[in-house]
Amino acid sequence: MNALSLTVRSLTARPVIAPLERPIRTAVGTIPAAPLVLIDLMTNEGVPGRAYIFGYMPAALAPLVRFLSDMESHLKGKLVAPVERMRDFTRMFRLLGRQGLVGMALSGIDMALWDAQGRALGVPVARLLGGDATPVPAYDSFGIVDPAADRKAIEASLDRGFQAIKIKIGGGDLDRDTATVAAVRDIVGPDVTLMVDYNQSLTAVDAIHRIDALARYDLAWVEEPVPAEDIRSQARVRAASPVPVQSGENWWSPAEMATAIEAGASDLAMPDLMRIGGITGWLSAMGYADGAGIPMSSHAFVEATAHVMPVTPTAHWLEFLDKACTLLTEPAVVENGAVLPRGPGLGMDWDEAAVNRYLQ
Fold first, then answer.
1. How far is CA 126 from CA 172, 218, 312, in A?
2. What stretch of H or E contains 42?
3. What pLDDT, on the 0 to 100 scale, is given for residue 4?
4. How many separate domains does the chain show?
5. What is the pLDDT of residues 272-299, one digit of tens each?
6. Looking at the predicted structure, is the pLDDT value of residue 167 above 90?
């Protein structure tokens, strides 16, 4: 078998709602379980390619599955060449655009194509990209917490070796934010990195006021304090903030990332593999971060981002927000606060019994 001449035979997509170890509580709503679409690409040579995408809400699953199913006819017989296939899709969707569900689905296909190539060659995707499968420093990602009720969970994260913790805030007024951050800082101590995420819930004026009050708790970053599409407000907050501002999970392309960097909207970058254009899109995005000297972290998709972070010049933190662990035969593992890229490919195989249990 020539691993470089693989061709696509089929593409299937399955909707599941996977249980989460911790519900994701945010300032704009709670995600009690993870609506995922599992993507299985099969080649004519018998090599599979696997990936998943996160639908955020159950209502998104059916249209994502339908769209992915429609894409099968555009892939059949074509080479497993992720960059070239993404060029095809760019041309195909030039008029419609690649935001929203379209972009999410195409990124999932891209990840599955890279996975198939890695499997065919018997190497992790990190090696395929020219890097090494080295451990990536990670932070444990929490939702809105109750410091008293969640103290044991936070301490358990520290016991697992995490040297950084992120919590979401903004579910109440500034006094509540302050009390939460102060209590979590007390739990983790002065040497653990602490980040906070507002999930786009504030106005610029309120954000500036709140960040100024929270700065004394030695925060590594404040994430998405204002709506992601409001570049001007982001830049305004960043200019006034004593804490580095993190953004990027809602960039729909490397070009959007470049626009945000040029506007001075963020000190840090955190693209999401599913939105930035999969692994192919990430490779372009990391060039923008490198050129601007901006530290680049990941957003979710633990398994796949563990492969792109080792080749990212300004790699910062991997977000450990494990949404697919109950569906995998070998979930991602944290050792000494870091995640090791697994292979071959992206190192993901479905636990079919679990998939069938949560199939929608």
1. 41, 33, 10
2. strand 29-43
3. 73
4. 2
5. 999 999 999 999 999 999 999 999 999 9
6. yes
Q: State both tokens at 84.
A: 């070239």
The helix (run of H) or strand (run of E) holding residue 29 is strand 29-43
CA dist., res. 54 & res. 249, Å (int): 13
Q: CATH number of the domain at 151, please.
A: 3.20.20.120
Beta strands, E only, 67-192: 136-144, 164-168
The structure's pTM equals: 0.96
| Residue from 137, 192, 140, 163 nearest 309 by CA | 137
Buried b (16+ CB within 10 A) or exposed e, 215-244: eebebbbbbbbbebeebebbbbbbeebebb
Task: Tell me whether the omega of the peptide bond preceding residue 344 falls within 30 degrees of 0, making it cis.
Answer: yes
> Looking at the domain assignment, is residue 358 inside a domain?
no
Which of residues 84, 105, 123 is at a domain's end? 123
- Six-digit token string for 359: 């199939």
How large a percentage of the chain has pLDDT more than 90? 96
- Within 8 A by CB and 6+ apart from 356, the residues are none
Q: Which residues are catalytic?
A: 168, 299
**Residue written as token pair 């704009």:** 28
